[in-house]
Write a structure and sequence with these properties.
339 residues; alpha/beta; six-stranded mixed sheet; five-stranded mixed sheet; 11 strands; globular; disordered N terminus
Length: 339
């Protein structure tokens, strides 16, 4: 029987070189190459910062605090999440902060469609493309509303009046380029009408102007005006979403009335640039479980009259790209934009 032979000195050097090259190749092809940095096995091993780029008490702040409460209560994620408000500049202060946390796997941020529209109406270099998409969680639908004594009993009444007197019907909003003006632009385009858009500094001022008879019509998120609708102070003519709201089953969609206009505000979670893929996958799964929980569907979705619409990272990115293209077209048609 032939015995194993020990290689010569040159043979040993050759084997060592081959082994070294193999180890380098395996390292390049392993998890470190695919994930860039890798995350600890016990990730997250320190507190998470959930940045809200808007003031306390608003819709984004409400979402962030509902997220943390339900995650803890339902046992989906029981480690520490600190909600931090970094308001200012229509969201750009907080967004700039998170954009500067490149590669940070311990910072995430709430987002709304404002981060998409800001690209076209504000002088900012920050866009949604600078962030890592994690999860879309919900969609805000807009209601078209009038005061109780308005002559417009239906959306058809409003459209007919606008056709009869161009610019004769006034629409109150919070500024050209905002969600209400984008919805109006769609309605004008699809219905072939022209309304007189009047801008105010806040949604509260818009509602005051509507109730005071200073504007004829406005739009609002359903949870902002449900109490006034139930009290009979405001009447909803239509909802600018793909389906009727469960709490307002008698209010038709615009599409039902032959007006192909839908405007929904996206609500979701983004991460900093270059977030580790493993961390992204971790949080996408956490938010999937949150979205599917009964507590989330009852307390946040139904409680705020939103439409549930979870999307994971890749589909969320595609949805934001589509929304951006729609907004850009509308902004250009309106003759607005900073770019």
């Amino acid at each position: 029987m032939e015995r194993d032979r020990k290689p010569s000195g040159d043979g040993w050097r050759l084997l060592v070189a081959v082994a070294l090259m193999a180890s380098i190749t395996l390292a390049a092809c392993g998890p470190a190459a695919g994930q860039a940095r890798g995350i600890p096995d016990n990730y997250p091993d320190k507190a998470i910062e959930l940045v809200v780029p808007y003031a306390p008490g608003g819709g984004s702040d409400n979402m962030a605090r509902t997220i943390t409460a339900i995650l803890q209560r339902e046992g989906i994620f029981t480690k520490t999440i600190n909600v931090v408000n970094r308001e200012g500049g229509s969201g750009t202060v907080g967004q700039t902060y998170v954009a500067g946390k490149k590669g940070d796997n311990y910072t995430i941020m709430t987002m709304t469609s404002g981060i998409i529209t800001n690209e076209f109406v504000l002088d900012t270099d920050i866009t949604y493309r600078d962030f890592t998409p994690i999860a879309r969680l919900a969609l805000d639908q807009l209601l078209i509303i009038v005061r109780k004594d308005s002559p417009f009993q239906t959306i058809e009444d409003l459209i007919n009046a606008a056709k009869a007197t161009p610019d004769g019907v006034s629409w109150g909003g919070t500024g050209l380029g905002g969600e209400d003006s984008l919805l109006l632009a769609q309605i004008e385009k699809e219905a072939g009408v022209q309304l007189n858009y009047i801008s105010f500094d806040s949604g509260g001022e818009v509602q005051a102007a509507l109730l005071g008879g200073h504007v004829d019509v406005a739009s609002a998120n359903p949870n902002e005006v449900l109490g006034q609708i139930e009290a009979g102070e405001i009447r909803a003519l239509a909802v600018a979403g793909p389906e009727r709201l469960g709490q307002l089953p008698d209010v038709p969609t615009l599409k039902e009335k032959g007006i192909n206009a839908i405007y929904e505000q996206t609500r979701g979670i983004l991460g900093p640039p270059d977030m580790d893929p493993a961390a992204v996958e971790f949080w996408a799964e956490i938010f999937r479980q949150l979205s599917e929980s009964e507590a989330w569907q009852t307390e946040f979705i139904e409680g705020n009259m939103l439409r549930s619409g979870y999307l994971g990272p890749e589909d969320f990115r595609k949805a934001m790209d589509e929304e951006s293209a729609t907004v850009k077209e509308l902004i250009e048609e309106m003759g607005l934009g900073s770019n």
